[in-house]
Design brief:
heterodimer, A: 118 residues, mainly alpha, 3 helical TM bundles of succinate and fumarate reductases, 4 helices, 76% helix, B: 237 residues, alpha+beta, Ubiquitin-like (UB roll), Fumarate Reductase Iron-sulfur Protein, Chain B, domain 2, 5-stranded mixed sheet, two-stranded antiparallel sheet, 8 helices, 7 strands, elongated
Chain lengths: 118, 237
């Protein structure tokens, strides 16, 4: 067991991630709440109404922001879990890469949906 | 008439070999005794079994020597009333630190992290003839910080400290870091904040708040850590 603190100087990292995690949480929670309330107050009656609602100009942008915030939040959160628990560097690299790729696929899928390519 | 209390105490002597085990004890407490603290009971148990090892010194919650895990919760034996804890009283060493023997842990790691935050006043001006003065308001900023007795109850209750004891400073050291950042006489704010801006040293804190929950002096390391993060944010913009 290492008993000396590993001090090799500041990386000047940590604050940005911490702040981004909080901002992304606020954005995702605010939109999630709005979406739920809007859905309850005026539920779309059929697929066409639903599509018109979620792909309307403002809503499309808001959904894009929501998914961006959620994906950023997920990435920082998972990275944080890996930093906490995965000690072998190689394992952390593999798991981080797999997570990053998975989130990138979701991001591309969301982008395709919102841009109307699917 | 007497009452009897049951104890289950972690026993381990690495030098003697063998595995750690829990040992049961039964302690007779004569009626009419003054109110006993857990440390008193441990002293009585040691009279029964002198091989039982634990640290203690001031026996009044000032030295921080007798930090241990009491029925699953870290605390100081000397200020824990025996009547406040249920039978069987289960005593284990502070979690996450190497055990030297029984309830005695090796606190080297804890002190290394404490030392790493430079827990002393850094002031580059010539020493004045009298002490460096503070206004009462400036002095008030240190309340809730300077009282830490370094018992280790908070850091050893922190899961982040369990997983990364060599890289995460832990709540006790971070509370001390804020104690000097908050001191109007200290002139090393920028260097201290630089040292903390790292994914591990400060930001492994996930606001679990075990530290504030168990602190026997009722201090709030979580709040101090929040103030450090706020100071870092303020510095950015």
């Amino acid at each position: 067991m290492k008993i000396q603190p590993q001090y090799i100087g500041s990386t000047r990292r940590g604050l940005g991630e911490w702040f981004a995690q909080r901002v992304s949480a606020v954005v995702a929670a605010a939109f999630g709440l709005y979406f739920l309330v809007a859905l309850c107050l005026a539920p779309p009656t059929d697929l066409e109404t639903w599509r018109a609602w979620v792909l309307g100009g403002g809503m499309r942008l808001a959904l894009g922001l929501f998914f961006a915030a959620t994906l950023i939040h997920a990435w920082i959160g998972m990275r944080s879990v890996f930093l906490d628990y995965l000690k072998p560097m190689s394992l952390r690299l593999v798991v981080s890469t797999a997570t990053g790729l998975g989130l990138a696929v979701i991001a591309l899928w969301v982008a395709a949906l919102l841009l109307g390519a699917v | 008439m007497s009452t009897f209390r049951q104890f289950s105490i972690y026993r381990y002597d690495p030098d003697a070999g063998g595995e750690p085990r829990m040992q049961s004890y039964r302690l007779e407490i004569p009626d009419g005794s003054r109110e006993l603290m857990l440390l008193d009971a441990l002293g009585m148990l040691k009279a029964q079994d002198e091989s039982l090892a634990f640290r203690r010194s001031c026996r009044e919650g000032v030295c921080g020597s007798d930090g241990m895990n009491i029925n699953g919760r870290n605390g100081l034996a000397c200020i824990t009333p025996l009547r406040s804890i249920k039978d069987p009283v289960t005593l284990r060493p502070l979690p996450g630190l190497p055990v030297i023997r029984d309830l005695i842990v090796d606190m080297t790691q804890f002190y290394n992290q404490y030392r790493a935050v430079k827990p002393w006043l850094i002031n580059h001006e010539p020493e004045p003839e009298i002490e460096r003065l503070q206004t009462p308001a400036e002095r008030d900023q240190l309340d809730g910080l300077y009282e830490c007795i370094l018992c280790g109850c908070c850091s050893t209750a922190c899961p982040s400290f369990w997983w990364n004891p060599d890289r995460f400073l832990g709540p006790a050291a971070l509370l001390q870091s804020w104690r000097f950042l908050a001191d109007s006489r200290d002139q090393a704010t920028a260097e201290r904040l630089d040292d903390l801006e790292d994914p591990y040293r400060l930001f492994r804190c996930h606001t679990i708040m075990n530290c504030s929950d168990v602190c026997p002096k009722n201090l709030n390391p979580t709040k101090a850590i929040g103030k450090i993060k706020a100071a870092l944010m303020k510095r950015v913009g």
